[in-house]
Amino acid sequence: MKIVKLQLNGFKSFAEKTSFTMHSGVTCIVGPNGSGKSNVVDAFRWVLGEQSAKTLRGDKMEEVIFNGTSDTAPKGMAEVTLSLSDIKGNETADNSSDKVSDNGTGKAHGDSSSGADIVEVTRRLYRSGESEYYINKAKARLKDVRELFLDTGLEVKSYSILEQGRISEILNAKPVERRSLIEEVAGVMKYKVRKSEAITKLQRASLNLERVNDIVSEVKRSVGSLERQAKKAERYKSLGAQLSSIELRIARRDYDALSSACKALDLLHADYTGRLGELTAEVAHNEELKTKHGAGLKDKKQVLDKTLHAISEMERQLSGTEKDMAVKDSTLNNILSHIQRLSAQQTEYLQQQYETIDRMEELSEVESELHREIEVIEAEYQSDKDKIEGIEKAFASIETEVRDKNRDFYQLSEQISNVRNEVSTLQTHLGALQQRQESSGSFFRGAQQTLDKHDSDIEATRKDIVDSQEGLALATERRQLLTTQLKQSDLSIERLRQGIAARRESIASDKARLKSLQEITASTLHEKDFGGTINIVATLSATLEVPQQYEIAVESALSDKVLAVILGTEGELKGAVAFIKQRAWDRTALISLDLYPSSDPSHKGMETEEKEQGLADGDVRALDVIKVDDAYRTVVGQLLGGVVIVCDIDRALELFRGNGGGHYVTLDGDVLGRDGVLTAGKGTDVLRHLRNIRELTEGLDISAEALAGLERDLASAISERDWLRTEQQEVQEQLASLDKEVSIFNLNLKKLTEERDRLAKKMHYMEVEARQTEQEVQSVLAAIKEKGQHQDILSARKDETAVYLQGLRDSLSSHKALIETTRTSLTDKKVALTTKKERLKSVQKEASSLRRAAEAIADKLSAIAQESGTLTSRRQEIANDIEVGAVDLQRISQDVALLRQQAAQEKGVIDVEGNTLAEIDRTLTKLRHDNDLLKEQLNETDVQRMQHNLRMENIRTSVSNTYDKDILEVEPQPLQEGEEDIVGELRRKIAEMGAVNMASIEEYEELKRRYDFLLAQQEDLLKSIAELEQAIAKINSTTRKMLTESFYELNIKFNETFQEFFGGGKAELTLTDPSNILESGIEIAVQPPGKKLQNINLLSGGEKSLSALSLIFAGFLIKPTPMCILDEADAALDESNTRRFSDTLKTPLSFFFSSTAWR
């Protein structure tokens, strides 16, 4: 992966679209403070998915949007785009291009291929707070962006982005916080992320499993209880369905029978009504005939009366007294006959009147009786009504008490059931305890045998361990000896390496000093090559070897001549003079050996010595302390002959005065010449420099020989160490084998001992448990006894309650029967009352009709009585006139005979009419009797219809209230044999079941489905946890291996990089917990050249920065990143360290560097 370009638009101080093209090597941004260099680094971090505003040096994320200036309007959006190339080709990317996809195709969002030449990652932030991510201009998630850069070294928290102050944080960080560096180098970030996700999933799965286990345990307890309730409800439902089916069929059968009976009664009622109509019509017709015949008969009687009257008149006129008497006698007879007829008629009417009066009296009595009966029935009806209300109240009270007692009964039953369950549980527990006692006895018998066998096995294993430990002790001693020797060898090697390093540093330092001295000496001596034409034999200062304490004095004595150039011949001398003049050089001292004879200068020296009297111990002759080659002794003798070196100027003046002259020089360089001139001041120190050069040269030769010897010793020590390591490895392998053997024996011993101890402990526990079991058995027996007594008490209470409840139920049944009887009586009374009232209406109607008939009869009787009175008076007159009318009787005898014949005919007609009228009366009487019978039958039919309708309505109401359906909706079905007989048994079974929870069926089915689902979830969670633990173990194994290899490689590379930065020294990384590299922190130990190993906090700021950069660059060299971003990483470095730092940047890596330093 390579970073091609970074584009900023509206991000922080970049108001307009700004692009930064990344070149191979170093891309540097240099500018003053506040120019926005760090904003570019923040842009890198922001586009990679940074979510912390504080990391971006702000309080809110919206602050990264350009906020405007006095001349520029604020932006509404910040956008940063990072262009990448060579996604596939970068090995460090770890196929991160495949991770860009989240659509299952392995292709990048918005691109046809994950290996496209350019991949653009864009992040936008609006002032509304909405954030967007794009990969190749297609919307993506933050997770996609992070996965794209995972293990590429370009993550948000990676060390490839070093902002201001981040370098010092590396050294100041805690050891655990530094481990992220080695994780980046090892490339385990993706495994770490996967492990973190797996651990999170594992924790969630574990929590879910705990919750599921709790729920399963809770649901499992509920399932059993609900299952029993559901089975009870199913049985209740089955019995109820069976009972309802039978009762509904019985009700429909009874309803249909009553309906059929009602239909038959309706037909009979219609027939009776029709016949009653016919009878009523016939009665009316006969009454009309009777009225008609009665009126005709009256008319005929009137005609007959007129005829008889005419006969009477004619008889009176017929004869005198006799005739009149005869007529009158005849008339009298007729009147008597008529009176008889009237009397007969009156008798008949009186009989009818009597009958009517009797009937009226009878009807009056019937009416009175009916009134009394109605009053009695109404009173009884009201009494029954009040009674039934009282009974119903008592029934409701008893029913309430029955419910209360039922509840008490069920509670007692439930308590008894609970006690029984507790007793059953205790008995089960007792059985388990007794079984445990039996198994404990068996266990003790077998455990003792096993214990004895374990003791023998332990003794044998201990003997094996002793034998193995003896061999192990010998091998351990050998290993300790080798380890000691190896440590000594390592210390020796380390000392040799330190000595070599110190020697090399010393040689380097001496060489540098030698070079510096040579340069200084060269500039001081003004060495000239004279163009190669003059042969320079030597310089005077180079030929002298002066003790250090006399260097200043000798140099001062020689003065400028100390810098003189010695030439071979006089010709060369002249040539050198000409050359100097030609080049216009400064003045230069030249000495030619030809000018000094090769005679021994000691003679002159001796002469000088003789002249110099009074020398003390501290006074020395210059020639006595100088060593010089024989070739130059004459020259030196000429230059320093007679020069005496004294301690100070006072001594020089003293000798000068004492000897009357001389050449003296003090140790501080003050010169008192023969001419008495005193010269003072600082010299050129050329002799000191030359002495230092000689010493350094000799020291370098010695150091080179010593270095070669140290290197030979180091090679020998390394060879010896390798041999010791080989020996140690062999001993270690032997020790490992023995240790493994001892471990196996120890493990076996531990297992045997643990097994023995466990068995002994278990036996002890079993003994304790046996005693506890015995105590528990006694406790359980006592509890069973106590529960039994409690159960007996509850049973007694239950029986008492049952007896009382049965009494209440009997009372309830009697009240219910009484209510039914009273209701039936009430219904019967209501029907009887209705019948009586109908009968009363009928009687009153008949009485009214009879009153009208009686009034008519009375009228007729009154007429007959009046007529009878008239006839009686007439008969008396006729009787009185018989004697007078006897004569007239003769005269009209013929007319009388005719009239009598006519009267007889008329009387015959009247008789016929009377018989007809009597027949009509008899017919009417019969018809009225039949009419009364039909009315009674009709009333009885109405009562039966009303009773049937009431029963049908009761059946309909009962079915509707009980089963919530209309009786007509019940399908009529025949009853099987014996079904009607089991209704009582079914009701008894249902009543014995007590309270039933019908909702338990659905609750059980729902809970069972939930329980099955939870079991499946539990199995899935267990499987997921096992898979996650396996994945975590695999990740740990892979990560541990990668971290171990990377830590070893990083440690070596860190030391090399540190030495390159510091020109030597030592750096090392150590693990705080080597046994657990997955969690271990990292300690940093550094030793700059010339300093002892010390705490990193005691280093200077520049040393800390270089140390941190050494560690970071070591990681980059092991695992290069697409780019390293450094923000003022050189802030704490001086010029020379900055130069080294910049030289290190000249690597194949890409660096994006910002700095305020123009250097």
From TrEMBL:
Q: Which GO terms describe its molecular function?
A: ATP binding; ATP hydrolysis activity; DNA binding
| Coiled coil regions, renumbered to chain | 297-324, 360-436, 721-776, 833-860, 917-944, 997-1038
What are the protein's UniProt keywords?
Answer: ATP-binding, Coiled coil, Cytoplasm, DNA-binding, Nucleotide-binding
Q: Where is the composition biased (Basic and acidic residues)?
A: 88-101
**For binding ATP, which residues are annotated in this chain's numbering?**
32-39
Cited SMART domains: SMC_hinge
* One Gene Ontology biological process: chromosome segregation
Region annotated Disordered, chain positions:
88-114
Which InterPro entries does this chain map to?
P-loop_NTPase, RecF/RecN/SMC_N, SMC, SMC_hinge, SMC_hinge_sf, SMC_prok
Subcellular location field: Cytoplasm
User: Residues in domain SMC hinge?
Assistant: 534-656
Q: Could you tell me which Pfam families the record lists for this protein? A: SMC_hinge, SMC_N
Q: Which GO terms describe its cellular component?
A: chromosome; cytoplasm
Quoted from the entry, the domain comment is: Contains large globular domains required for ATP hydrolysis at each terminus and a third globular domain forming a flexible hinge near the middle of the molecule. These domains are separated by coiled-coil structures.
- Report the protein's function: Required for chromosome condensation and partitioning.
Subunit note: Homodimer.
Q: Which PANTHER family match?
A: STRUCTURAL MAINTENANCE OF CHROMOSOMES PROTEIN 3 (PTHR43977)
Q: Which NCBIfam families match?
A: SMC_prok_B
Q: Which family does it belong to?
A: Belongs to the SMC family.
Q: What is this protein called?
A: Chromosome partition protein Smc
Species: Candidatus Magnetobacterium bavaricum
